[in-house]
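Q: Give me a protein?
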Amino acid sequence: MSEKINEFIKFIIVSIIPIIIYSSMMFLEGGECIYAESVSKESYFQVNLTKDVKYELWVVDYVGPEKIKISIRKDSYIVLEDTFMLMHPEGDYLPYHPSFTVKENGTYQVHAKPLDSGTVSIGILEFPSRRWSIKIDSEHKKDVKLQTPSELKEELGI
């Protein structure tokens, strides 16, 4: 019976926590998550991307693989290709949320290959979100305080 409870807890951690993290980051950053996936083995996915839109690739997990190689491409056109390394104790991967744009609309292939064991959450966020964009007129602009991920997590109590 305790094995079933342990498996249920692992399921909750692997499925619910990434959703909470992505939702929080999407709200804080103003981007919209257009793609999210948990990866534990070499995987291929497809995602529709639009020309002249800014995207960010998020790789997040506290106990994921030490390294993961990710590429985004359409045929021979490589949009992004890099090996992400887990930084301890923050749980962030470097390079940190690289941004990219594509030169044509269409379906792009995402290839993720963990180089160590573990599960990692991958997301592509669109900025600004077409659904949640907020326009601020110049009279009401506020100064923005830039924070490191660790400072932001500390401020939010994460």
In short: The first helix runs from residue 2 to 29.
